[in-house]
Design goal:
Helix content: 25-40%
Number of strands: 4
Strand content: 15-25%
Largest sheet: 4 strands, antiparallel
Number of domains: 2
Distance between the termini: 65 Å
Number of helices: 5
CATH class of the largest domain: Alpha Beta
CATH architecture of the largest domain: 2-Layer Sandwich
Strand order of the largest sheet: 2-3-1-4
CATH topology of the largest domain: Alpha-Beta Plaits
Length: about 140
């Protein structure tokens, strides 16, 4: 008896459900492109290799100095992180990575020659094993 009640109740529940058209809820490729459109024209990436003798306190200071570059008004966004060994044999051997976003090339050029950037850049040299590698990206 109890099982029959559940079957009848389930059947009534199924009949009462209306299927709705979800096609309007889907995102068209054009809309998706608009949603993902970057707000910055240039991503400046810098890859740092630190001396083996660099202490954890010095690494923290190094990253804090990089983050201080956000004081420069032309800097849109800045991201600083230590790299992690996740077992990928293809991973390059850098210790810290910084990404700085700019709205346009002019802002990046102002940043590159900005006195504060040059001071920070000079202050980081004692920690570096070699010159940093850089790459600049222009998202489409």
């Amino acid at each position: 008896m109890r099982r029959s009640v559940y079957v009848v109740f389930g059947f009534i529940l199924l009949l009462s459900c209306k299927s709705r058209d979800v096609s309007n809820d889907l995102i068209s490729p054009e809309t998706l492109i608009e949603v993902q459109k970057p707000s910055f024209e240039i991503e400046h990436m810098v890859f740092f290799t630190l001396k083996d003798s660099t202490t954890n306190a010095e690494i923290s200071l190094f990253k804090e100095r990089l983050r201080s570059l956000r004081r420069i008004k032309e800097v849109g966004q800045i991201f600083v992180a230590e790299t992690q060994d996740l077992g990928d044999s293809r991973a390059l051997d850098y210790d810290v990575v910084m990404t700085v976003s700019f709205r346009n090339r002019t802002e990046m050029e102002v940043y590159m020659d900005h006195p504060f950037h040059l001071i920070v850049k000079e202050s980081l040299k004692p920690f570096l094993r070699e010159a940093p590698a850089t790459i600049d990206l222009m998202p489409e």
